Amino acid sequence: MTPYTLIIITIVALISTSCSSTKILVAMNKSTDRFIVLESDKRILYERGAKADAKTIAKKLDTAIESVEKKQYKKFTKPVTVYICDSIKSFTSYCVYSQASGCVLNERLFLSPKNFQADRQALTHELSHLHIEQQLGMFTWHSGYPAWFQEGLATYVSDGEGANTVSPDEARKAIIDGKTFTPNISGSLIFKKTAHSFGLTPNMFYRQASMFVKYLHDIDKVKFKTFLLSVESGKNFDKSFSLVYGNSIKEVWNEFIQDQRKLRYFRIGYATNFKLIKGNSMSRKCQISGKGPMTGNNVSHAQNKTKRRFLPNLRTVRITLEDGTKKKIKVSAKELRTMRKKANQ
Question: How far apart are CA 258 and CA 290, in angstroms?
Answer without folding.
Answer: 8
